[in-house]
Amino acid sequence: MVDVPRSADVVIVGGGVHGASLAYHLARKKAGRVVLIEKKFIASGPTGRSTALVRRFYAMDFFTRTASAAADMFAHWKDVIGGDGDPGFQKVGLLALAGADKATHLRHNALQAQKLGAGVTLISPADVKTLVPAANVDDVALASYEADSGYADPSSTANALVNRARELGATIVQYRHVDAIRAAGDKVVGVTSEGIGIDAPVVVNCAGLWADRLLRPLGIEVSIRPERHLMCFFRRPRGFDVHPAVADTVLMTYMRPEHGDLTIHGKLSYDEIVDPDHYNEGVDPDQIVTNAELIAQRFPVMEHGLAMGGYSGLYDATPDHHPVLGAIPEYTGLFADFGWSGHGFKHSPAIGDILSDVILHGRAKDYDLAAFRWTRFREHDLVPSARWTAEPHPKHRL
Ligand SMILES: Cc1cc2nc3c(=O)[nH]c(=O)nc-3n(C[C@H](O)[C@H](O)[C@H](O)COP(=O)(O)OP(=O)(O)OC[C@H]3O[C@@H](n4cnc5c(N)ncnc54)[C@H](O)[C@@H]3O)c2cc1C
Predict the structure, then answer these.
(1) Which residues line the pocket of ligand 1, CB cutoff 6 A?
(2) What's the rounded Cα separation, in Å, for the pair 150 and 147?
(3) What is the CATH number of the domain that holds 250?
(4) Residue 163 shares a structural domain with residue 307
(5) Model pLDDT for residues 259-282, shown as the tens digit of each residue
(6) Residues of the chain where predicted confidence (pLDDT) is lower than 50
(7) What is the reported pLDDT for 391?
(8) Domain assignment of residue 286, yes or no
Protein backbone atom coordinates (compact mmCIF):
# COMPACT_ATOMS: atom_id res chain seq x y z
CA MET A 1 0.00 0.00 0.00
CA VAL A 2 1.15 3.53 -0.81
CA ASP A 3 1.64 5.86 2.18
CA VAL A 4 -0.93 8.63 2.07
CA PRO A 5 0.85 12.00 1.93
CA ARG A 6 -0.40 14.62 4.39
CA SER A 7 0.17 17.43 1.94
CA ALA A 8 0.30 17.89 -1.82
CA ASP A 9 0.36 20.59 -4.47
CA VAL A 10 -2.61 19.09 -6.31
CA VAL A 11 -5.10 16.45 -5.13
CA ILE A 12 -7.16 14.71 -7.81
CA VAL A 13 -10.26 12.89 -6.57
CA GLY A 14 -11.13 9.90 -8.76
CA GLY A 15 -9.15 7.35 -10.73
CA GLY A 16 -11.31 7.07 -13.84
CA VAL A 17 -9.77 7.88 -17.19
CA HIS A 18 -10.16 11.66 -16.64
CA GLY A 19 -8.40 11.70 -13.26
CA ALA A 20 -5.73 9.43 -14.76
CA SER A 21 -5.17 11.71 -17.74
CA LEU A 22 -4.97 14.81 -15.56
CA ALA A 23 -2.46 13.14 -13.20
CA TYR A 24 -0.29 12.21 -16.16
CA HIS A 25 -0.34 15.69 -17.73
CA LEU A 26 0.26 17.47 -14.41
CA ALA A 27 3.19 15.17 -13.63
CA ARG A 28 4.55 15.67 -17.14
CA LYS A 29 4.34 19.45 -16.68
CA LYS A 30 6.13 19.23 -13.32
CA ALA A 31 3.19 20.54 -11.31
CA GLY A 32 4.83 19.54 -8.01
CA ARG A 33 3.43 16.84 -5.70
CA VAL A 34 0.43 15.42 -7.55
CA VAL A 35 -1.70 12.96 -5.56
CA LEU A 36 -4.59 11.01 -7.11
CA ILE A 37 -6.99 9.32 -4.69
CA GLU A 38 -9.38 6.58 -5.88
CA LYS A 39 -11.93 4.96 -3.58
CA LYS A 40 -11.64 1.57 -5.25
CA PHE A 41 -9.17 0.69 -8.00
CA ILE A 42 -8.21 2.51 -11.20
CA ALA A 43 -11.06 2.38 -13.77
CA SER A 44 -13.39 0.62 -11.30
CA GLY A 45 -16.22 3.07 -12.14
CA PRO A 46 -17.91 3.72 -15.50
CA THR A 47 -14.53 3.99 -17.22
CA GLY A 48 -13.97 0.25 -16.86
CA ARG A 49 -17.32 -0.48 -18.52
CA SER A 50 -16.96 1.97 -21.37
CA THR A 51 -17.40 0.83 -24.95
CA ALA A 52 -14.46 3.18 -25.48
CA LEU A 53 -15.17 4.23 -29.06
CA VAL A 54 -12.48 6.57 -30.32
CA ARG A 55 -13.89 8.81 -33.03
CA ARG A 56 -13.30 12.27 -34.31
CA PHE A 57 -16.22 14.60 -34.83
CA TYR A 58 -19.24 16.26 -33.28
CA ALA A 59 -21.65 19.10 -34.05
CA MET A 60 -19.46 21.38 -31.98
CA ASP A 61 -15.91 22.46 -32.75
CA PHE A 62 -14.67 22.10 -29.18
CA PHE A 63 -15.47 18.38 -29.09
CA THR A 64 -14.32 17.78 -32.68
CA ARG A 65 -10.97 19.27 -31.75
CA THR A 66 -10.57 17.40 -28.46
CA ALA A 67 -11.79 14.10 -29.95
CA SER A 68 -9.45 14.46 -32.93
CA ALA A 69 -6.46 15.42 -30.79
CA ALA A 70 -7.16 12.48 -28.49
CA ALA A 71 -7.64 10.05 -31.40
CA ASP A 72 -4.19 11.03 -32.67
CA MET A 73 -2.78 10.35 -29.20
CA PHE A 74 -4.39 6.89 -29.13
CA ALA A 75 -2.92 6.14 -32.56
CA HIS A 76 0.60 7.25 -31.58
CA TRP A 77 0.55 6.39 -27.87
CA LYS A 78 4.13 5.18 -27.50
CA ASP A 79 5.54 8.35 -29.07
CA VAL A 80 3.21 10.79 -27.32
CA ILE A 81 2.59 9.31 -23.86
CA GLY A 82 5.53 6.91 -23.63
CA GLY A 83 6.07 4.25 -20.97
CA ASP A 84 5.20 0.56 -21.19
CA GLY A 85 1.43 1.07 -21.17
CA ASP A 86 -0.78 0.24 -24.12
CA PRO A 87 -4.33 1.62 -24.45
CA GLY A 88 -5.28 -1.31 -26.69
CA PHE A 89 -6.32 0.93 -29.56
CA GLN A 90 -7.83 -0.99 -32.49
CA LYS A 91 -8.09 0.94 -35.75
CA VAL A 92 -11.18 -0.79 -37.16
CA GLY A 93 -12.64 2.38 -38.70
CA LEU A 94 -15.92 4.05 -37.76
CA LEU A 95 -19.10 4.50 -39.77
CA ALA A 96 -21.77 7.02 -38.77
CA LEU A 97 -25.12 6.39 -40.46
CA ALA A 98 -27.91 8.92 -40.95
CA GLY A 99 -31.40 8.71 -42.43
CA ALA A 100 -32.94 11.36 -44.68
CA ASP A 101 -34.05 13.43 -41.67
CA LYS A 102 -30.50 13.87 -40.32
CA ALA A 103 -28.40 13.74 -43.50
CA THR A 104 -28.13 17.53 -43.84
CA HIS A 105 -26.75 17.91 -40.33
CA LEU A 106 -24.35 15.01 -40.78
CA ARG A 107 -23.05 16.58 -43.99
CA HIS A 108 -22.65 19.99 -42.39
CA ASN A 109 -20.90 18.66 -39.28
CA ALA A 110 -18.55 16.36 -41.21
CA LEU A 111 -17.56 19.15 -43.62
CA GLN A 112 -16.95 21.49 -40.69
CA ALA A 113 -14.85 18.76 -39.02
CA GLN A 114 -12.82 18.37 -42.22
CA LYS A 115 -12.01 22.09 -42.06
CA LEU A 116 -10.67 21.47 -38.55
CA GLY A 117 -8.48 18.65 -39.84
CA ALA A 118 -10.51 15.73 -38.51
CA GLY A 119 -10.07 12.59 -40.60
CA VAL A 120 -13.63 12.01 -41.82
CA THR A 121 -15.14 11.52 -45.28
CA LEU A 122 -18.75 11.53 -46.40
CA ILE A 123 -19.82 8.38 -48.22
CA SER A 124 -22.97 7.12 -49.93
CA PRO A 125 -25.08 4.13 -48.86
CA ALA A 126 -23.55 2.23 -51.81
CA ASP A 127 -20.05 2.97 -50.43
CA VAL A 128 -21.18 1.62 -47.04
CA LYS A 129 -22.29 -1.57 -48.78
CA THR A 130 -18.91 -1.87 -50.48
CA LEU A 131 -17.13 -1.37 -47.17
CA VAL A 132 -19.34 -3.79 -45.24
CA PRO A 133 -21.26 -6.06 -47.63
CA ALA A 134 -23.30 -7.49 -44.75
CA ALA A 135 -24.90 -4.10 -44.04
CA ASN A 136 -28.50 -3.31 -44.91
CA VAL A 137 -28.47 0.30 -46.15
CA ASP A 138 -32.10 0.65 -47.30
CA ASP A 139 -32.83 3.24 -44.61
CA VAL A 140 -29.47 5.09 -44.85
CA ALA A 141 -29.35 8.39 -46.74
CA LEU A 142 -25.78 9.43 -45.96
CA ALA A 143 -22.83 8.11 -43.98
CA SER A 144 -19.47 9.31 -42.76
CA TYR A 145 -16.40 7.16 -42.45
CA GLU A 146 -13.35 7.63 -40.27
CA ALA A 147 -10.73 5.16 -41.47
CA ASP A 148 -8.33 5.94 -38.61
CA SER A 149 -10.84 5.67 -35.76
CA GLY A 150 -11.86 2.62 -33.77
CA TYR A 151 -11.90 1.73 -30.09
CA ALA A 152 -9.56 1.24 -27.16
CA ASP A 153 -9.48 -0.76 -23.96
CA PRO A 154 -10.70 1.66 -21.27
CA SER A 155 -9.09 0.00 -18.28
CA SER A 156 -5.74 -0.38 -20.05
CA THR A 157 -5.94 3.28 -21.09
CA ALA A 158 -6.53 4.55 -17.54
CA ASN A 159 -3.84 2.27 -16.15
CA ALA A 160 -1.34 3.28 -18.83
CA LEU A 161 -1.94 6.93 -17.87
CA VAL A 162 -1.60 6.45 -14.09
CA ASN A 163 1.45 4.25 -14.51
CA ARG A 164 3.06 6.94 -16.60
CA ALA A 165 2.01 9.59 -14.05
CA ARG A 166 3.61 7.47 -11.30
CA GLU A 167 6.85 7.15 -13.31
CA LEU A 168 6.88 10.94 -13.60
CA GLY A 169 6.52 11.37 -9.83
CA ALA A 170 2.77 11.38 -9.07
CA THR A 171 1.41 9.43 -6.09
CA ILE A 172 -1.53 7.14 -6.84
CA VAL A 173 -3.56 6.07 -3.82
CA GLN A 174 -6.20 3.35 -4.32
CA TYR A 175 -8.88 1.97 -1.98
CA ARG A 176 -9.15 5.28 -0.13
CA HIS A 177 -12.31 7.39 -0.02
CA VAL A 178 -12.24 11.18 -0.07
CA ASP A 179 -14.93 12.25 2.38
CA ALA A 180 -14.83 16.00 1.86
CA ILE A 181 -13.15 18.85 0.08
CA ARG A 182 -11.97 21.34 2.71
CA ALA A 183 -12.21 25.09 2.24
CA ALA A 184 -11.22 28.09 4.37
CA GLY A 185 -13.32 31.04 3.32
CA ASP A 186 -13.19 31.17 -0.44
CA LYS A 187 -10.05 29.05 -0.80
CA VAL A 188 -9.64 25.31 -1.11
CA VAL A 189 -7.18 23.97 1.47
CA GLY A 190 -7.27 20.21 0.86
CA VAL A 191 -9.39 17.13 1.46
CA THR A 192 -10.25 14.78 4.28
CA SER A 193 -9.98 11.10 3.63
CA GLU A 194 -10.94 8.38 6.09
CA GLY A 195 -9.98 10.40 9.14
CA ILE A 196 -6.87 12.16 7.86
CA GLY A 197 -6.39 15.55 6.29
CA ILE A 198 -4.37 16.12 3.14
CA ASP A 199 -3.47 19.78 2.74
CA ALA A 200 -3.41 21.10 -0.82
CA PRO A 201 -4.04 24.47 -2.47
CA VAL A 202 -5.57 22.77 -5.53
CA VAL A 203 -8.24 20.04 -5.57
CA VAL A 204 -9.69 18.64 -8.79
CA ASN A 205 -13.00 16.81 -8.69
CA CYS A 206 -12.85 13.93 -11.19
CA ALA A 207 -15.31 11.82 -9.19
CA GLY A 208 -17.79 11.11 -12.02
CA LEU A 209 -21.13 9.84 -10.70
CA TRP A 210 -20.22 10.86 -7.16
CA ALA A 211 -18.83 14.34 -7.94
CA ASP A 212 -21.97 16.17 -6.78
CA ARG A 213 -21.72 14.69 -3.28
CA LEU A 214 -18.35 16.38 -2.74
CA LEU A 215 -19.59 19.74 -4.01
CA ARG A 216 -22.95 20.02 -2.25
CA PRO A 217 -21.45 20.81 1.20
CA LEU A 218 -19.60 23.70 -0.47
CA GLY A 219 -22.87 25.13 -1.80
CA ILE A 220 -22.20 24.04 -5.40
CA GLU A 221 -25.31 22.24 -6.66
CA VAL A 222 -24.92 20.20 -9.84
CA SER A 223 -27.38 17.48 -10.76
CA ILE A 224 -25.72 14.17 -11.74
CA ARG A 225 -28.24 11.54 -12.83
CA PRO A 226 -26.82 7.99 -12.90
CA GLU A 227 -28.29 6.68 -16.18
CA ARG A 228 -28.16 2.90 -16.63
CA HIS A 229 -26.95 1.86 -20.11
CA LEU A 230 -27.09 -1.74 -21.28
CA MET A 231 -24.54 -3.34 -23.59
CA CYS A 232 -25.16 -6.74 -25.23
CA PHE A 233 -22.71 -9.20 -26.77
CA PHE A 234 -23.47 -11.17 -29.93
CA ARG A 235 -21.35 -13.84 -31.56
CA ARG A 236 -21.10 -13.21 -35.30
CA PRO A 237 -21.87 -16.17 -37.56
CA ARG A 238 -19.14 -17.78 -39.63
CA GLY A 239 -18.31 -15.65 -42.68
CA PHE A 240 -19.17 -12.31 -41.03
CA ASP A 241 -15.70 -11.06 -40.21
CA VAL A 242 -14.60 -8.01 -38.32
CA HIS A 243 -16.59 -4.86 -39.14
CA PRO A 244 -16.01 -1.16 -38.44
CA ALA A 245 -17.51 0.45 -35.37
CA VAL A 246 -20.97 1.80 -36.25
CA ALA A 247 -22.74 4.85 -34.82
CA ASP A 248 -26.26 4.52 -36.18
CA THR A 249 -28.67 7.43 -35.79
CA VAL A 250 -31.28 5.69 -37.95
CA LEU A 251 -31.80 2.82 -35.50
CA MET A 252 -30.36 4.86 -32.57
CA THR A 253 -27.78 2.19 -31.78
CA TYR A 254 -24.03 1.75 -31.78
CA MET A 255 -21.73 -1.23 -31.97
CA ARG A 256 -18.17 -2.32 -32.42
CA PRO A 257 -16.28 -5.57 -32.71
CA GLU A 258 -15.09 -7.08 -29.44
CA HIS A 259 -12.42 -9.77 -29.00
CA GLY A 260 -12.71 -12.82 -31.22
CA ASP A 261 -15.95 -12.98 -33.20
CA LEU A 262 -18.05 -10.93 -30.77
CA THR A 263 -19.82 -7.65 -31.43
CA ILE A 264 -20.85 -5.37 -28.55
CA HIS A 265 -24.09 -3.53 -29.22
CA GLY A 266 -26.23 -0.99 -27.36
CA LYS A 267 -28.91 1.66 -27.83
CA LEU A 268 -27.88 5.30 -27.96
CA SER A 269 -30.27 6.31 -25.22
CA TYR A 270 -31.75 4.83 -22.08
CA ASP A 271 -33.64 6.69 -19.39
CA GLU A 272 -33.48 4.48 -16.29
CA ILE A 273 -32.02 6.40 -13.34
CA VAL A 274 -30.50 4.26 -10.57
CA ASP A 275 -28.56 4.41 -7.32
CA PRO A 276 -24.88 4.28 -8.45
CA ASP A 277 -23.94 2.26 -5.37
CA HIS A 278 -26.69 -0.37 -5.78
CA TYR A 279 -27.93 -1.15 -9.25
CA ASN A 280 -28.46 -4.12 -11.54
CA GLU A 281 -25.09 -4.49 -13.28
CA GLY A 282 -26.41 -7.22 -15.57
CA VAL A 283 -28.53 -6.93 -18.70
CA ASP A 284 -32.34 -7.25 -18.85
CA PRO A 285 -33.58 -10.24 -20.91
CA ASP A 286 -36.08 -8.11 -22.86
CA GLN A 287 -33.24 -5.75 -23.85
CA ILE A 288 -31.20 -8.65 -25.22
CA VAL A 289 -34.16 -9.41 -27.50
CA THR A 290 -34.53 -5.75 -28.51
CA ASN A 291 -30.80 -5.44 -29.24
CA ALA A 292 -30.83 -8.72 -31.19
CA GLU A 293 -33.65 -7.39 -33.37
CA LEU A 294 -31.86 -4.09 -33.93
CA ILE A 295 -28.50 -5.58 -34.86
CA ALA A 296 -30.26 -7.93 -37.31
CA GLN A 297 -31.97 -4.93 -38.92
CA ARG A 298 -28.57 -3.41 -39.71
CA PHE A 299 -26.78 -6.71 -40.42
CA PRO A 300 -29.41 -9.28 -41.49
CA VAL A 301 -26.80 -12.06 -41.24
CA MET A 302 -26.96 -11.55 -37.47
CA GLU A 303 -30.25 -13.44 -37.46
CA HIS A 304 -27.82 -16.36 -37.28
CA GLY A 305 -25.79 -14.70 -34.51
CA LEU A 306 -25.79 -15.88 -30.92
CA ALA A 307 -26.77 -13.70 -27.95
CA MET A 308 -23.99 -13.91 -25.36
CA GLY A 309 -25.40 -11.81 -22.49
CA GLY A 310 -24.19 -8.39 -21.51
CA TYR A 311 -23.76 -5.89 -18.70
CA SER A 312 -24.83 -2.43 -17.57
CA GLY A 313 -22.76 0.68 -16.95
CA LEU A 314 -23.72 4.16 -15.81
CA TYR A 315 -23.53 7.56 -17.45
CA ASP A 316 -22.93 10.53 -15.10
CA ALA A 317 -25.59 12.60 -16.86
CA THR A 318 -25.77 16.34 -16.29
CA PRO A 319 -28.89 18.30 -17.34
CA ASP A 320 -27.45 19.00 -20.82
CA HIS A 321 -25.36 15.82 -21.12
CA HIS A 322 -22.14 17.81 -21.18
CA PRO A 323 -19.36 17.96 -18.62
CA VAL A 324 -18.54 20.44 -15.92
CA LEU A 325 -15.01 21.41 -16.82
CA GLY A 326 -12.57 24.01 -15.53
CA ALA A 327 -12.36 26.26 -12.50
CA ILE A 328 -15.13 26.53 -9.93
CA PRO A 329 -14.55 30.22 -9.26
CA GLU A 330 -16.43 30.33 -5.93
CA TYR A 331 -13.33 28.68 -4.41
CA THR A 332 -9.77 29.49 -5.44
CA GLY A 333 -8.02 26.23 -6.22
CA LEU A 334 -11.15 24.17 -6.92
CA PHE A 335 -11.49 22.58 -10.37
CA ALA A 336 -13.91 20.17 -12.04
CA ASP A 337 -13.73 17.49 -14.72
CA PHE A 338 -16.85 15.32 -14.44
CA GLY A 339 -20.30 14.79 -15.90
CA TRP A 340 -19.21 13.53 -19.30
CA SER A 341 -22.62 11.91 -19.69
CA GLY A 342 -21.52 8.95 -21.81
CA HIS A 343 -19.10 10.60 -24.23
CA GLY A 344 -16.04 11.22 -22.11
CA PHE A 345 -13.70 8.37 -22.85
CA LYS A 346 -12.54 9.44 -26.30
CA HIS A 347 -11.62 12.99 -25.21
CA SER A 348 -9.78 12.05 -22.04
CA PRO A 349 -6.11 12.10 -23.15
CA ALA A 350 -6.61 15.61 -24.58
CA ILE A 351 -8.74 17.00 -21.74
CA GLY A 352 -6.05 16.28 -19.14
CA ASP A 353 -3.68 18.38 -21.24
CA ILE A 354 -6.14 21.27 -21.49
CA LEU A 355 -7.22 21.23 -17.84
CA SER A 356 -3.65 20.98 -16.56
CA ASP A 357 -2.89 24.20 -18.45
CA VAL A 358 -5.91 25.89 -16.86
CA ILE A 359 -4.73 24.77 -13.41
CA LEU A 360 -1.12 25.80 -13.94
CA HIS A 361 -1.50 28.91 -16.08
CA GLY A 362 -5.08 30.09 -15.59
CA ARG A 363 -6.06 29.31 -19.16
CA ALA A 364 -5.55 26.79 -21.95
CA LYS A 365 -4.00 27.91 -25.18
CA ASP A 366 -6.64 27.74 -27.96
CA TYR A 367 -9.45 26.37 -25.77
CA ASP A 368 -12.14 28.26 -23.90
CA LEU A 369 -13.91 26.25 -21.20
CA ALA A 370 -16.48 28.95 -20.33
CA ALA A 371 -19.40 27.04 -21.86
CA PHE A 372 -18.77 24.19 -19.41
CA ARG A 373 -18.94 26.27 -16.22
CA TRP A 374 -21.18 24.73 -13.56
CA THR A 375 -23.31 27.88 -13.23
CA ARG A 376 -24.78 27.38 -16.72
CA PHE A 377 -27.35 25.06 -15.16
CA ARG A 378 -28.80 27.72 -12.87
CA GLU A 379 -28.42 30.38 -15.59
CA HIS A 380 -30.47 28.20 -17.99
CA ASP A 381 -27.65 28.51 -20.53
CA LEU A 382 -27.32 24.83 -21.39
CA VAL A 383 -24.96 23.53 -24.06
CA PRO A 384 -27.09 22.06 -26.87
CA SER A 385 -26.65 18.52 -28.17
CA ALA A 386 -23.32 18.04 -29.92
CA ARG A 387 -24.14 14.68 -31.49
CA TRP A 388 -22.64 14.27 -34.95
CA THR A 389 -26.12 14.54 -36.49
CA ALA A 390 -27.30 17.40 -34.26
CA GLU A 391 -28.23 20.76 -35.65
CA PRO A 392 -25.28 23.19 -35.72
CA HIS A 393 -25.87 25.71 -32.96
CA PRO A 394 -24.53 29.02 -31.63
CA LYS A 395 -21.93 27.33 -29.44
CA HIS A 396 -20.76 25.42 -32.48
CA ARG A 397 -17.55 27.37 -32.82
CA LEU A 398 -16.26 27.22 -29.29
C1 LIG B 1 -21.69 1.51 -21.10
C2 LIG B 1 -20.86 2.73 -21.39
C3 LIG B 1 -20.39 2.94 -22.68
C4 LIG B 1 -19.64 4.07 -22.97
N5 LIG B 1 -19.14 4.22 -24.23
C6 LIG B 1 -18.36 5.29 -24.52
C7 LIG B 1 -17.77 5.42 -25.81
O8 LIG B 1 -17.95 4.55 -26.67
N9 LIG B 1 -16.97 6.50 -26.04
C10 LIG B 1 -16.78 7.47 -25.11
O11 LIG B 1 -16.10 8.45 -25.40
N12 LIG B 1 -17.32 7.38 -23.87
C13 LIG B 1 -18.09 6.30 -23.56
N14 LIG B 1 -18.63 6.17 -22.31
C15 LIG B 1 -18.42 7.25 -21.35
C16 LIG B 1 -17.06 7.21 -20.72
O17 LIG B 1 -16.71 5.90 -20.39
C18 LIG B 1 -17.04 8.11 -19.49
O19 LIG B 1 -17.44 9.43 -19.87
C20 LIG B 1 -15.67 8.19 -18.84
O21 LIG B 1 -15.12 6.91 -18.63
C22 LIG B 1 -15.78 8.93 -17.53
O23 LIG B 1 -14.52 8.92 -16.91
P24 LIG B 1 -14.33 9.73 -15.57
O25 LIG B 1 -12.90 9.57 -15.18
O26 LIG B 1 -14.87 11.11 -15.71
O27 LIG B 1 -15.31 9.06 -14.50
P28 LIG B 1 -15.39 7.63 -13.79
O29 LIG B 1 -15.00 6.52 -14.66
O30 LIG B 1 -16.76 7.62 -13.20
O31 LIG B 1 -14.34 7.75 -12.62
C32 LIG B 1 -14.62 8.44 -11.42
C33 LIG B 1 -13.85 7.72 -10.33
O34 LIG B 1 -13.94 8.48 -9.13
C35 LIG B 1 -13.95 7.59 -8.04
N36 LIG B 1 -14.52 8.31 -6.91
C37 LIG B 1 -15.77 8.85 -6.84
N38 LIG B 1 -15.97 9.45 -5.66
C39 LIG B 1 -14.81 9.30 -4.96
C40 LIG B 1 -14.41 9.70 -3.66
N41 LIG B 1 -15.23 10.41 -2.85
N42 LIG B 1 -13.16 9.36 -3.24
C43 LIG B 1 -12.31 8.67 -4.07
N44 LIG B 1 -12.65 8.26 -5.31
C45 LIG B 1 -13.89 8.57 -5.75
C46 LIG B 1 -14.82 6.45 -8.55
O47 LIG B 1 -14.61 5.26 -7.84
C48 LIG B 1 -14.41 6.35 -10.02
O49 LIG B 1 -13.41 5.37 -10.24
C50 LIG B 1 -19.37 5.04 -21.97
C51 LIG B 1 -19.82 4.81 -20.66
C52 LIG B 1 -20.54 3.68 -20.37
C53 LIG B 1 -21.01 3.44 -18.96
Answers:
(1) 13-19, 37-40, 44-47, 49-53, 177-178, 206-210, 214, 229, 231, 313-316, 338, 340, 342-346
(2) 8
(3) 3.30.9.10
(4) no
(5) 899 999 999 999 999 999 999 999
(6) 396
(7) 87
(8) yes
| Helix, strand or coil, per DSSP, at residue 194 | coil
Residues 189 and 137 in one domain: no
Of 288, 317, 346, the residue at which a domain comes to its end is 317
- State the distance from the centre of ligand 1 to the C-alpha of 133, rounded, in angstroms: 35
Give pLDDT tens digits for 188-240. 999 999 999 999 999 999 999 999 999 999 999 999 999 999 999 999 999 99
**Nearest ligand 1 atom, CA 193:** 42
The DSSP code for 237 is P
- The answer to whether 149 and 91 are in contact (CB under 8 A) is yes
Specify the pLDDT at position 3. Answer: 87
CA distance 157 to 349: 9
Instruction: Specify the pTM.
Output: 0.98
Cα 298 to ligand 1 centroid, rounded to whole Å: 29
Kindly give the distance from the C-alpha atom of residue 162 to the centroid of ligand 1, in angstroms, as a whole number: 15
Query: What spacing in Å lies between the alpha carbon of 197 and ligand 1's midpoint?
Result: 26
Domain span holding position 331: 10-49+155-223+320-397
* 83 DSSP 8-state letter: S
Q: Does residue 56 lie in a domain region?
A: no
- The angle subtended at Cα 271 by Cα 267 and Cα 276, nearest 5°, is 105
3-class state of residue 169 by DSSP:
coil
| One domain for residues 271 and 327 | no
Is 232 found in the same domain as 138? yes
| Closest-lying ligand 1 atom to the alpha carbon of residue 345 | 11
